[in-house]
Automatic annotation (TrEMBL), chain A:
Lineage: Bacteria, Pseudomonadati, Pseudomonadota, Alphaproteobacteria, Hyphomicrobiales
InterPro entries in the cross-refs: AAA+_ATPase, ABC_AA/LPS_Transport, ABC_transporter-like_ATP-bd, BCA_ABC_TP_C, P-loop_NTPase
GO cellular component terms given for this protein: plasma membrane
PROSITE patterns, per database record: ABC_TRANSPORTER_2
Keywords for the protein's UniProt record, in alphabetical order: ATP-binding, Nucleotide-binding, Transport
Protein name stated in the entry: ABC transporter ATP-binding protein
SMART domains: AAA
Pfam family, one: BCA_ABC_TP_C
Record carries keyword Nucleotide-binding: yes
Superkingdom assignment: Bacteria
UniProtKB/TrEMBL annotation, chain B:
Transmembrane regions listed in the UniProt entry: 20-40, 47-75, 95-114, 121-137, 170-189, 210-232, 256-279, 291-311
Assigned keywords, A-Z: Cell membrane, Membrane, Transmembrane, Transmembrane helix
Taxonomic source organism: Hansschlegelia zhihuaiae
Topology versus the membrane: Multi-pass membrane protein
Example of a GO MF term: branched-chain amino acid transmembrane transporter activity
One Gene Ontology CC term in the entry: plasma membrane
InterPro entries, per the entry: ABC_transp_permease, LivM-like
Name by which UniProt lists this protein: Branched-chain amino acid ABC transporter permease
Pfam families: BPD_transp_2
Keyword check for Transport: no
Amino acid sequence: MTDDFLLETRGLTREFSGFTAVNKVDLRVRRHSIHALIGPNGAGKTTCFNLITKFLQPSSGAILLDGRDITRTKPADVARLGMVRSFQISATFPQLTSLENVEVALQRSLGRSFHFWRSKRTLAPLREQAMTLLDDVGLAFAANRVVADLPYGQKRALELATTLALNPEMLLLDEPTAGMGREDVARTVALIRRISPNRTILMVEHNLSVVADLSDRITVLARGEILAEGAYGAISTDPRVKEAYMGKGEPAHV
Amino acid sequence: MSKIPGALPARPAGSSLGVSRGLILVAVAAALLAAPFVFYPVMLMKVLCFALFATAVNLLLGYAGLLSFGHAMYFGGAAYVCAYARKELGWTPEASILAGVAFSAVFGLLTGLLSIRRSGIYFAMVTLALGQLFYFLCLQSPATGGEDGIQSVPRGLLFGALDLENNVTLYYFVLAVTGFGMLAAYRAINSPFGQILTAIRENEPRAISLGYRVAWFKALAFTLSAALAGLAGATKVLVFQLASLTDVSAPMSGEVVLMTLVGGMGTVLGPVVGAAIIVSMQNYLADVGEWLIVIQGLIFIATVSLFRRGVVGEIAARLRRGRGT
């Protein structure tokens, strides 16, 4: 049980013309845990995400999802295996309504996505589920609003609802609370906690109180390499982390 | 969760709106049916064929966000196939048109799979290159008649009964074909498939991250668009009794994009209005000769710099603003 890892990377490396953004990262995410990936800007967190979800091809190394090698799998197929990501910049479909955004995610399960001869009204059975998902993130009131008109925090919440619509076994959340007001942060933290049972979550997050609140385990990245790993208490007192995260000489108050 | 049903406002009710919309539809239908007795039917049919062609381009450009500069391939390719089947093989008009559409659909799928491997300007360049390739193939092939094209294609009897030599009869047939094509495009746009297509246009990485294999959606959109362009090209053959190199040329590809933009891409009626404007200009300004191309260029510049949404797009935007939403 102790080494039941849902996601594992072995020697994950990505070079961009001479610059090594991610260097031999061995990341292991335990099943049904919340694992945070933190580190200063430019540490390679988002590159890691892009590699794991196959939006970028690793230069070397391997990625295993539930023991299965996905190093050569295409990004859409990674999502189909049950690992779904969110993006750092709110990833929505701006000209669609909130409801339609969620429906786009839900309709894959119907297997009718190539049916160009059917009316969109055949998607009506998804509506109730879509509304429930919107309600979960506090967006039921904006169901019929075009997403381009929503404030940033609500777009982030919508993105979370869309991700959850796939009911993924594993979620990769790239800064889920970035740009949110305090109230929205609290709601999002509560939501992540609520959906976390029976799911595995890997998240990049800058808000350390969110990290402290949610994560079972933390990996600190610096300059593309793993600097430290452990529970929040151990990480927050690690002098190497303080130095990398806060800079030398500054008092650490994480 | 109790607020779910209430959160979905019903469509803005108002029987008056429904009635006026119904009246407009009846008026438009009456105008379309009476048109051949007022205007020259051949010109009307030309407008209809190009309206359908522009609708095909609009499906790809306006809803999938893919700009093709090679659509004359499918328009002209289907025209050649239809003309050949009709004249050389003696097939019925309806079978000849279907042959043209089938050719364009298959050809569209193959070339589409090639083109969608690139995006943006590179996609446009690949389609342009493929179009030029096909043009020279048509120039050299014995089946197309080279510089002469396939001339004097007999119109024949539709379903063995309706004489298409009669311009008015042919007009109603072309009207029906165009109507069918536009309804098909409208349905595709407003289908589960259309929703995913819009999502891909709006944010491709997000669509991928939700598990959609976007290449197949683009390929299907491309195929549908090519098939509709083929329907337009094959129907045009019956009108002009001619399939020629003009139909497969790069200027033809550019012209139909111009129609789509002038009318308003991403709107259902835009391509029709755009086709009507450009085709009537070509007809009524035939005397100015080469200057026509200059005028078209100016219109294009005016469209992209002054009213980017096109005629229909601008009107729709103004109506929305007028309603205060």
